[in-house]
Amino acid sequence: MQKWVKVTGIAFVGTSLLLTGCQSDKKAKTSEQAVTSVKMVAGEQIKLGGAVNVRDLGGYKTADGKKIKSHRLIRSAELYKLTGDDIHKLKSTYHLQQIVDFRTNSEVKEKPDPPIQGVRYTHDSIMKDNGASTSMADLTRSLSKMDNPESFLIQANQSFVTDEHARQAYKKFFDILLENEKGAVLWHCTAGKDRAGFGTALVLSALGVPEKTIMKDYLLSNKYRAAENKAAIEEVAKQTDDPKVIDGMKAIMDVRESYLNAAFMEINKQYGSMDRFLKDGLGLTSKDLTKLKSNYLS
Question: Which residues are paired to 75 by β-bridges?
Answer without folding.
Answer: 55, 187
